[in-house]
Design brief:
By secondary structure, the protein is α/β, with parallel strands linked by helices. Helices cover 34% and strands 21% of the residues. 48% of the residues are buried.
């Protein structure tokens, strides 16, 4: 009972992907989750008939088994499916204009011409011409098996041959995306738009956002016939599919089971101790948690094994959240998503300058009671932890500040739904303290702020032979595709290349 081949700490998407793949090859795997709900940032919760999302609202690649869709690939490998509904776009509220926008190159080109004219359109076309070779490289690289730590010379040569026509561009993938954007874009709206997309991906400006991540996004969002996917039932349906794939092969999931520490004999991990003091033994440990929580699980005398730069890494800021249940009577043509920017001049990372809204019940009525809509809004990675860290939740000072800071959501909401104040039936607000409590992230952070100008995210390896890491603090970085791939890298490291190749042969 208390002996496993692998213990995974945390049931975020990365941990679930790793666990499902390992269990599919006969490994005895335990996932320990501190929260009462699985999924990490991707969990959802219910109140008064409404289903609220806590994390990602933009999904794609769930149906796909392309090289740029690792989550879709993993779902295919474990023989699980998520029912999705396809859609094309969102509403945009920016200082220049308010408009509806669809994914794909042509709709955005039409909008550029309308808003900014021919010169701006020519700039965009030149920029996209420069991005396309990078996107082609990404498309040819099997993301599940391209961890820099696990490639041998023969595999590097094979990949090089694959991308030979674009090989001269390959070095740009390691740079900040701003280096490319600034070469071609001078139009303020276009530069701001690319900066916005970068920020939504990484929590940093385009100068610091990894070009490979952006090339992947552009490959998906600006290709002909592009579309987005909404998983019916919300993110919970994705999490449940991974859990089904995990459990049907013998995987065990423990909820409300926070790991207190990783146990060691000399420098070899032997298992974990839970907060209830239960000890569980394992051959391997996979830490699906952020850098800071990973360090807190280690004995103090072993922490020095990590490089100083990993301790000194900057963190992205946190979030404000709003969750609404509201009357939908006589409301038509609501956008499923809205992106709002208050003032470009304040900078893309400024506090309360950007908000993202999702109304999933527009496309999936099961998310709300009949005749109602459910909404989740958040300010992405721009809320400072420092103004909240010393406040006591539910104190008057805390509640007053929460109401004051979250009022930022109402300005764009009144543009989307002019009489929203009269329609609200359920309202819940969240702060960095809320985000930390329910996702167990350090300071409620989006993740490490590792500038692409300086280095890549650290890989799955740690200084300890049988302790691995996955999730948004590891390569390839932040975002659903990235964390899914990171979980696969851990599975490959534990199973070995030969066995892992047997798994992914199903993708051919």
């Amino acid at each position: 009972m208390n002996n496993f081949d692998v213990i995974i700490i945390g049931s975020g998407i990365g941990g679930l992907c790793s666990g499902a793949l390992l269990a599919s090859r006969g490994k005895k795997v335990l996932i320990c989750e501190a929260h009462s709900k699985p999924g990490g940032v991707a969990h959802s919760f219910k109140s008064r008939g409404y289903t609220f999302e806590s994390g990602p609202s933009l999904w794609n690649g769930l149906e796909s088994i392309s090289n740029t869709s690792p989550l879709g690939q993993i779902l295919h490998l474990i023989d699980e499916k998520v029912e999705v509904k396809r859609y094309k776009g969102w509403k945009v509220l920016v200082p220049e204009a308010e408009f509806n926008l669809e994914v794909g190159d042509l709709p955005f080109r039409k909008k550029i011409k309308e808003l900014r004219g021919d010169e701006a359109l020519n700039q965009w076309d030149s920029f996209m011409k420069a991005v396309k070779p990078l996107s082609r490289i990404i498309d040819k690289m099997p993301l599940l098996t391209t961890s820099p730590e696990n490639l041998n010379l023969q595999e590097i040569l094979k990949l090089s041959i694959k991308v030979l026509p674009e090989i001269s561009h390959a070095n740009n993938l390691r740079k900040g995306f701003g280096e490319i954007a600034n070469k071609f874009l001078t139009d303020p709206f276009l530069k701001n738009w690319v900066d916005l997309l970068s920020f939504l991906i990484s929590g940093m400006s385009m100068d610091d956002t990894n070009t490979a991540a952006m090339a992947t996004l552009f490959n998906e969002w600006f290709k002909p016939n592009a579309y987005l996917e909404y998983p019916l039932g919300g993110s919970e349906s994705v999490v449940n599919a991974l859990i089904r794939g995990f459990k049907k092969n013998g995987g065990k999931l423990l909820l409300s089971s926070k790991v207190k520490n990783i146990n060691f004999s000399n420098e070899f991990a032997t298992g974990v101790t839970l907060e209830n003091n239960e000890t569980i033994n394992s051959e391997f440990i996979v830490a699906n948690c952020d850098i800071w929580n990973k360090h807190s699980l280690l004995p103090s005398h072993l922490i020095s094994k990590f490089k100083d730069k990993e301790f000194n890494v900057e963190k992205c800021k946190s979030f404000l959240h709003i969750h609404l249940g509201f009357d939908a009577t006589n409301i038509k043509d609501l956008p499923i998503h809205t992106i709002w920017v208050d003032d470009w001049g304040r900078g893309i990372t400024a506090e309360r300058n950007i908000a993202v809204f999702s109304i999933p019940s527009v496309i999936d009525p099961s998310m709300a009671p009949k005749g109602k809509h459910v909404l989740h809004g958040y300010t992405p990675a721009n809320e400072p932890w420092e103004i909240w860290e010393n406040l006591k939740p539910n104190s008057k000072e805390y509640n007053d500040l929460k109401e004051e800071r979250c009022e930022v959501f109402m300005k764009p909401l009144r543009k989307i739904i002019p009489d929203i104040d009269k329609r609200i039936e359920l309202k819940m607000l969240g702060t960095p303290l809320t985000h930390q409590r329910f996702t167990n992230t350090h300071c409620g952070s989006y993740g490490p702020a590792i500038s692409a100008k300086k280095s890549l995210f650290p890989g799955y390896k740690t200084p300890f032979k049988n302790v691995l890491a996955c999730g948004a603090s590891t390569f390839p970085g932040i975002g659903i595709p990235a964390v899914a791939a990171s979980g696969a890298y851990c599975a490959e490291a534990i199973l070995g290349k030969k066995e892992f190749k047997k798994i992914i042969s199903k993708l051919n």
